[in-house]
Each structure stands twice: as C-alpha cells, then as structure tokens.
Sequence to fold (300 residues):
Amino acid sequence: MLYINFSCPPLPHLIVGGISLFRKGDIHERRILNNTFDLIFVFSGALYLEENGRKYTVEPGQFLILPPDNLHKGYKSCTADTTFSWIHFSTTGSYSYSESPISYVSAKMNKHKYYKKDTFYISLPQYGMIDKSLHDVLKSHMDDISQVKIDKYHNEKLFYPSTISQIQYQQLFLKILTIFCDSNERTVEKDVAAEIYDLFTLNYGQNFTLNELAEQYAFHPAHIIRCVKHKYGMSPLQLLLSIRINKAKQLLSDRDKTVNWIAASVGFSDTSYFCKQFKKSTGMTPLEYRKIISTPAKNE
Fold:
C-alpha cells in the first residue's frame, strides 16, 4: 500500500469541497491539478480512475487521493449511477511517499521545547476503505464543507456561498483527515499486533524485550504496547505469557514430561516462577492441572 506522508507544521489546508452526481455512462474528466490534491470518497456506484498509468476502481466506502501535478482521468464509464464527494486540498509544506505509514511518538516535554514544535507526520493511504460505522459522520462533514455541486443529470455546476467561517471549514477538513488517519491507524495496529502474536506463537520458548520488538517492527515501544493492547487486551509481555501458559497446558497432558522440562520448553528458566505464573493464570499448580485433565470423567 502506498502512503502519502505530510510533514507538519504546516498542516494541509482545504481549498474547496464538493459533491458530484454521475449518471450511468458518465466518465471522469482528464486533467492535471497543479499543487492540489484531490481526495475522492464514493457513496454509491463506482468510479474508474487512472493516475500515472495505475488504474483504480473506487466503490462505495472506498477513497482515493490523487496527488498534484499528475495526469488523472477516467479509464472507464460509470456502470451505474454514482455519487461521490471530493475535496481539493493543498500544503505549503513537504510531503513524501512510502510503502508504510510514518509512525510518530512525541518526545517528552522539557524546558528547551517551550517555543519549538516538533515535526510530526500525517500519513494517509492513497487508496483504501473507510469503516462503515464512520460513513454517516464522514458524509456529514463532507456535506458541511461542500460549496460545489456537479450534477450530470441536469448538466449543471452549482456554486454555494460560504455558510461558516474559513476557520470552521478548516476545522471540518481536519476532522475528515482524522477519520482517514484513524481508519488507517486501526489497520496498522491490527497488522502489527497480529504479526507479534504469530511471532510469539512460533517462538514462545524465546525471550523478547519491548525494545527488540520496536526495532523489528520499526515502531516506538509505546506504540507496540498500544497496538497489542488494543487488539488483545493485554501488553505484549502478558500476551507472550498467556501463549506460554496455554502451550504448557497442552504439554501437561503428556505424563512422561516433567514440570521442569515443560517450564524450560515454554521459555521459563526458573521452574518456581513458572509454577507461580501457571497458578496465577489457572488457579492451580501444574501438577494439579495435570491430575484434573488426566482423571477420567465419571458417568452420570
């Protein structure tokens, strides 16, 4: 996935928002927008867009950001009536592209930072899907900033006067960007957390530190904790402990394996500590657990 990373400050700013109503058979125009990004969100139907030779199908709930100074056009006519909102925006700052979002964690405040703002990044996926639960809020914000209506049914372009102040328009625009950022962040969190879970499941006998995980996945340790906790309800080290205890439960069904051997095989160098953690998790010692799972059930 390609991400567009905006270096801030300054923040990206709204130029104008609008809504377009296309009929079946209509096609997006061919054009280049100088110094202007075009963000498109489709509510119904589908748009077929091409940008610098890359083709996109943008369906309901999906979005596409077309960068400035690149040729974009429709490569195929709409196959159904299509409604979409669009936002033209710009930045006077720098921006870059990457295959993954830039993660930013603010450094701790200190006396040398009273008068200087750290650089941070807004990372937006160029193409993706917005969670359905956010569609109504997103539509409301986009409707509020719309000042242009392109109506292909009546072959007209309507312009509406401003109803709120410019600062309110910019605030709504930033709320819209926040929805895209939050949607992207949840996806990243799920991906990182799932990868860490798989890592622990395959390597539960090894020890891991937060710094090692942060280095491996190129995120700050605090971000790693937040991702895993959001998905699994526990910290990375608690997740590893849970996986180890579950594996130990499986191994305890084999009476030929000693508790010392099981403790070592699931990553504990201290058997006493293993027994303590096992009892804390299950409410019984490893031998008590083995006895229960080894006892045949009585016929009722």
Q: What stands out?
A: The CA atoms of residues 58 and 130 lie 12 Å apart. The chain has a mean pLDDT of 89.
